[in-house]
Amino acid sequence: MTGYVALTFDDGPDPAGTAALLAALRAGGARATLFAIGRNARSHPRLLRRARNAGMWIGNHSWSHPDLTRLTPARTRAELRRTQAVLGRLNGTAPRLFRPPYGETGDAVRSIAAGLGLTEVLWDVDSRDWAGADADEIVAAAERLTDGQVILMHERYPATIAAVPRILAALRTRNLRPGRIDEATGRAVAGE
Ligand SMILES: [Zn+2]
Q: What is the DSSP string of 123-189?
């Protein structure tokens, strides 16, 4: 097999996780997509810029991480718009990718996102780091990735950070490279 996969890390920027994550990715020569929470970016602008400067792609993960399917359309739009504004300011360009918190979405959420120029991206493989998976389990989850696929991880878990070098090494042996997510298809492609 040969191709590209997308490593994604949600819920940052995070003072306990972002710096270590960036170091692990840099050590492996890898780039990833970080789905940032708007209010976290506002609280930790330097971490967001640092991720951008390290070559990471930044996506919109809402302002306050609600289940968007339970909000009115106006509140959902505000969650995404406010996040576009802060990420656009810090990143230099507004995100084109959006991941709904908890993966909870529907036609209304997708159409509001599309109206803001955002493509919704879920995942093919869930690392389950959020459910307490250890590094071995996270590495094993990444072993299931095939060409074009996307894996869900998070910035704040030590087990995830510990897994990153092993995931990168394992991908290399399978001729899979960490790439970006294509805005048209939501699939992993060569980074640029
Ligand atoms: Zn999240």
A: -SEE--GGGT--HHHHHHHHTT--TT-EEEEESS-HHHHHHHHHHHHHHHHTTEEE-EEPTTT--EE
User: How do 188-189 and 180-181 pair as beta strands?
Assistant: antiparallel
State the residue range of the domain holding 14: 3-189
Cα 65 to ligand 1 centroid, rounded to whole Å: 6
Cα(35) to centroid(ligand 1), Å: 8
In total, how many domains does the chain have?
1
Q: What is the mean pLDDT of residues 86-93?
A: 96
The alpha carbons of the chain give a radius of gyration, in whole angstroms, of 15
106-161 residue pLDDT tens: 999 999 999 999 999 999 999 999 999 999 999 999 999 999 999 999 999 999 99
Catalytic residue check, 154: yes
What percent of the chain has pLDDT above 90? Answer: 98
pLDDT for res 192:
74
Active site residue 65: no
Residue 54 belongs to domain with CATH number: 3.20.20.370
Residue 61 CA to ligand 1 centre (angstroms): 7
Confidence category of residue 1, pLDDT binned at 50, 70, 90: low
